[in-house]
Design a protein that fits this description.
Bound molecules: S-adenosyl-L-homocysteine
Oligomer: single chain
Distance between the termini: 24 Å
Strand content: 15-25%
Helix content: 25-40%
Amino acid sequence: MTDKPDIISMSKSELTAYLTENYGLPRFRADQIFKWLCKGAGFDNMTNLSKELRKKLSEELFCSLPKIEKKLVSKIDGTVKYLFKLYDGNYIESVVMHYSHGNTICISSEVGCNMGCRFCASTIGGMTRKLLPGEMLGQVAVANFDGADISNIVMMGIGEPLDNYDNVIQFLKLVTSDEGLNIGARHISLSTCGLADKILELAKEEFGITLSISLHACDDETRSAIMPINNKWNIGALLSACREYFITTGRRISFEYTLIAGKNDSPLQANKLADLFYKYFSENGRLLPIHVNLIPVNEVAERDFETSSVEAVKKFAEALEKRRINATVRRKLGPDINASCGQLRRSAEKEKSLITNK
Ligand code: SAH
């Protein structure tokens, strides 16, 4: 561990002050270094700095820029999955997806996760630590350095972003800054399992990022059985916070609903879900702008949930449509590289412990 501040977690003015005060560097050098970091370049690649200076800085400064440990590219749709190694040897994953509206990166916010959702691979070993702002920024920057040309960010990888609130806020400030990566808040979405208090705090920050809620159930009994967070913030508390988020920011709320065979995928449950949306999101009889993403659950080796049949997914979507709820079934990207779950990190961790236990 290091007690030095992380230079890639700093804004341009913070970095300039730090480098001029502590290392006597002129302002233009600090500008050069800031630009390189935003581009995802490590010290080795900072080619307009002398070799001696690069060596000195890489020995003396702390920079949490992640390194690409492994890169998988889908032969089917070009989706790219990165396994990143962090400065302390931990691993995280990011996925780059190509859409007609631009390239989107799905980033991690923590090493592991403490939320305990029963169907999720990322939470199996609990949470090791929270990511630094620079480690979230670094995933975007390093992917760009590798040619990804990112225009959209979803915080939907490993971890619960609202459980790492302060670092996520600093990351959002850095990534939206016009001195930095300059990615607009409208191109960023944050997915949460439902920390209602933090949703209300986030609303007050007025970033205007899109909020995506992992709902996955239409009643408290079912939700608590698959998502422990529901025991703290139940569906009523969560949806009231979402309504407040919409009122404050004017941003449409998006809901994730993972379909698990026999658990939450019946047309009756679709109707109950629609009832919930009308209860919490209607104004003068009209529904506020919401969107539901239906995701057939990804079967995870360590979990025994079965994915819903194509027929069940279709019926669920139709039941929502009949109630005039905007819903789409999520297209599965990168199926040949297992793009959507935290299993690459788990196998890298397993390999690491096999090596260290030898
Ligand atoms: N902690 C945040 C973000 C990370 S999880 C959250 O809960 O939203 C990203 C999304 O993947 C969430 O909607 C989560 O519920 C979903 N997810 C996790 N495991 C899954 C699985 N096995 N199949 C389908 N979706 C899954």
